[in-house]
Amino acid sequence: MSTSSKRNLATFLLVLGAVVFGMVLAGGLQLTVPGSADQDRAANVSLSATRMASEHLTTLPSFADLAQAVDPAVVSIQAATIEKGGRRGQGQGQDPFEFFFGPRNRRPQQPDGEDGTGQPGQPEEFRSDAGGSGFVISPDGLVVTNFHVVEGATSVKVHLGDRDYPAEVKGTDKATDVALLKINAGQPLRYLELGDSDAVRVGDWVMVVGNPLNLDKTVTTGVVSAKGRSIGISDASFENFIQTDAAINFGNSGGPLINMQGQVVAIATAINWGAENIGFAVPVNTVKEILPQLRDKGRVSRGYLGIGIRNLDFTQAQAWGLPNTDGALVQSVEDNTPAEEAGIEHGDVILSVDGRKIKTTRDLIGYVSAKGPSASVTLDVWRDGKTVQKQVKLRERPGQNEEEASSARPEEGGGIEWLGIQYQDLTNTLRGAHGIPEDVQGVVVTNVTPTSPLYEQALRPGSIISEVNGRKVSSVADFEKTIKSAKPGTYLRLYTVVFSQRGEPAPFFAVVQVP
User: What are the angstrom distances between the C-alpha of 419 and each of 87, 145, 455, 492?
Assistant: First the structure.
């Protein structure tokens, strides 16, 4: 064999060896063309939740502009309750809100003396103050808050800007924990628009604005943690809370839960007393459904079937021969109710109402409640493997609005009873009893009722009113003459002095508007 042939053969063998070595090495490192198993693995990448999430990463937002814009429409609410004969709620069992979420922010106060009027033998008067938040929803002064903020209140005030406005309770609904107030500010107000809580998604950013622990206009942020929560603090039929990790504390109740577009999507309502970052809010769509009735009637009338229902799970759907878990399973039918009269039985599965498909019990409850009493509905019911139709004439849902908050006006009568105070001329005995120096002139206050407009301004027995609108007062006759000559709607400036146990004077002005 020639030298040239040997060289060509050696080169061929060298190339062949390199190819074989390369194939062996690639196979060892799993660099060969993927087979069917690898193709399946690649196809399953599309199911990776991690990869899907990484495609939607966003930067953290700033809430500064949003907070600045909505701030003028958020209010604080003070509700005062006056009761005679015992403290609020005495002997009535514990408030379910307090049982589940801890003590509510009420401050009971008892006036000095044997009873609330200073007269022995009369029923005692007790005053309880509660605070909360709210938000304006119309330029003419409609304000939304929670029912439990104003529940049983004798008087309600709304603090907006630097002013307090007396509020009229237009309507309340205990079942959904919603109340509608009205204030007259004398000018159009900044208001918040109501959004769509159904469009809110778990993970969406939200902001809460309110007055927790009397810290005015506090802003907290977080995300929607869950939807459709039922936590057993009110009527379970209507509980549909949005859960959030935005901080909600005492005093936030009634304040808005706001989306990134500045719309209200829920009302901050409650916290879990034993946990952190678990708060609950009433969806704004629930509020929108009942607002017209609260505004026009002061209460909510709802349609009623008289059945106990639950959602279907997979096993139940199989047992009932249904293709999916859509529908409402009837667990019980109450006696003498529209459902019983229409022939609804326990074990029925309600698939639709008036042609509208029922996916969950909330679909049925919401539709029937909105129809109102005296309306008729057609139910498609799954029974014994086939669908039957039932016509039902609805009635008023019982037990609704048994407790409605109401506003109260100062008592009217002869003289100046609306002031709610008792007073008399200074005598030597009174000067000695209250430590009043000889050179101090005026009338001494002997009692202040909790309903007095001066009660909240620290006027107490022993206070000396020495001037009214700059005019000195030396006797009861002077005081009453000045008060009675004031025109309705005008303000009275009462220059008042109280003395410490060491005899040190502490003067202040108490201001009251003449009714």
Answer: 23, 29, 10, 11
Closest C-alpha among 383, 359, 388, 356 to residue 371? 356
How far does Cα 192 stand from its chain's mean position?
Answer: 15
Spatial distance between the Cα atoms of 184 and 444, rounded to a whole number of angstroms: 35
Give the 3-state secondary structure of residue 207: strand
Virtual torsion, Cα 97, 103, 109, 115, nearest 10 deg:
70
Q: Within 10 A of 313 (CB to CB), how many other CB atoms are there?
A: 11
What DSSP string describes 458-502?
Answer: T--TT-EEEEETTEE--SHHHHHHHHHTSPTT-EEEEEEEEE-TT
Beta-sheet pairing, 125-136 with 142-145: antiparallel
Q: Bridge partners of 281?
A: 242, 268
**Distance between CA atoms of 210 and 503, rounded to whole angstroms?**
41
Is the model's pTM score more than 0.70? no
Give the per-residue pLDDT at 135.
Answer: 96
Q: Phi first, then psi: what are they for 213, rounded to 5°? A: 55, 35
Query: Residue 441 is encoded by which pair of tokens?
Result: 């002139």
Structure-token pair, residue 107: 């401050």
* Residues with catalytic function: 148, 177, 253
Residue 293's φ and ψ, nearest 5 degrees, are: -70, -40
Specify whether the CB–CB gap between 194 and 287 falls below 8 A: yes
Sign of CA pseudo-dihedral 233, 237, 243, 249: negative
Expressed in percent and rounded to 5, the helix, strand and coil fractions of the chain are 25, 30, 45
What do you get for the CA distance between the two ends of the chain, in Å?
130
Q: What is the pLDDT of residue 35?
A: 52
Q: What is the pLDDT of residue 98?
A: 44
3-state secondary structure of 252: coil
The pLDDT assigned to 212 comes to 87
- In this structure, the number of other CB atoms found within 10 A of the CB of residue 359 comes to 16
Tokens of 443: 């009338």
Residue 143: name the closest of 181, 200, 100 by CA.
Answer: 181
Looking at the DSSP bridge assignments, the partners of residue 178 are 173
Q: If you ran DSSP here, which 8-state letter would residue 396 be given? A: E
Low-confidence spans in the chain with pLDDT less than 50 = 29, 32, 86-103, 105, 108, 110-120, 401-415
By the 8 A CB rule, do 390 and 307 touch?
Answer: no
Q: How far, in Å, CA of 293 to CA of 373, rounded?
A: 13
Structure tokens at 396: 């008023």
Tell me, letter by letter, the H, E, C secondary structure of 338-357.
HHHHHCCCCCCEEEEECCEE
pLDDT of residue 122: 53
Say which DSSP state 72 is in.
G
Q: Residue 71 has what DSSP assignment?
A: G
